[in-house]
TrEMBL record:
The keyword Hydrolase applies. It comes from Ogataea haglerorum. Keywords: Apoptosis, Hydrolase, Protease, Thiol protease, Zymogen. PANTHER family: METACASPASE-1 (PTHR48104:SF30), METACASPASE-4 (PTHR48104). Residues 56-74 have a biased composition (Low complexity). One of its GO terms (cellular component) is cytoplasm. Residues 18-31 have a biased composition (Pro residues). GO terms for biological process: apoptotic process; proteolysis. Residues 1-89 are annotated as: Disordered. One of its GO terms (molecular function) is cysteine-type endopeptidase activity. This is Metacaspase-1. Residues 108-395 form the Peptidase C14 caspase domain.
Amino acid sequence: MYPGNTHATYNNQYQRPSHPPPSRPVGPPPSRMYQPPASAPPTRQYERPAAPPPYWGDQQTQTYQGTGGISYQQPAQQPPMPNFNMQNQQINGTNNVQQFQYSSCTGRKKALLIGINYIGTRNALRGCINDAHNMFNFLTRAQGYKAEDIVMLTDDQRELVRVPTKANMIRAMQWLVKDARPGDSLFFHYSGHGGQEEDQDGDEEDGFDDCIYPVDFQQAGSLIDDVMHDILVKPLPAGCRLTCIFDSCHSGTALDLPFCYRAQDGGIKEYNVWKESSGDALSLVTGYLTGNPGLMMSSVGNVFKRVKARSGSRAEQIKQAKMSPADVIMFSGCKDSQTSADANEAGSFTGALSYAFIKVLSENPIQSYLTLLQNIRAVLAQKYTQKPQLSSSHQIDPNVRFIM
């Protein structure tokens, strides 16, 4: 049994192991395919970490002012449904063709919801557990998900199997994608701290892997984007939908999906090394003006890594490796270089992206991918500087109807 807050289970397949996971993995497994720990901690009261995650960035804590007066973007006509047949996609600069298939979202629906407040730590959050509960209500009341097909992990639980430790999060991710079939609609929602760690395999634009922090990150470590891609994206078949919401800092490419879209017109973003490296460019200038050669060399090195990661055929190899025939969509709370906000709406703490996603779809369920992104940004733009991102595992038509 793997109960969540709603007594959801892993279809009676979960067997609780007898001993805890290792304190930290010794290194990446072969071929970047993550091999999960052999076991989870025994059932006992959870001991919360004493310190915040490293490099997680300052969390914005501001009061959300509401959405009165927002002019939502509306398509000129009702957005058409996607073409659900198998389709071919040309890989830029090569003769290779990648097949993919939109999901009809008429099959089984499953969801994994994770909310971590890091209760009792110096940098506790206040809205993440609320986000998980709000998303549960939205999915079950408006999107046709059943409570028995939803697993929820939050760090206000006493029973350890329901706490978002790294081992529990990995098992829950594996449960989510297990036996996935064409037409299925899977949903993953994470609200908690996010951060960045130095990239080890050269596949990141900014030289850093994005990561999320389980509640036991001090003992078990973080979960990086490469690992989450291997667990959540690679096993999925063509025609299976996975919708992901990452309401966390530095989450722009948290799932390593190869296509990211402009909010203005839905076009695919082109990589701009100096735009993405604005912080290092500023450090380079500062180092020059202050006569600090160490700062200058560090900044140049970071920019060089970005150029190397996105140069010529290497960029296309990375993109092709991250493509999937499945229908994977991600909305993230901000760019890789930004933080995401803890908000307060009507006296209740919530993550800004989680609140905006639910609000926009509740007020107008019929949206295209593009108008959904634009309207989420419009809600947040009243108060916050963060810019939510839309990315996908294959090139989508941003003007077709968003379904889940």
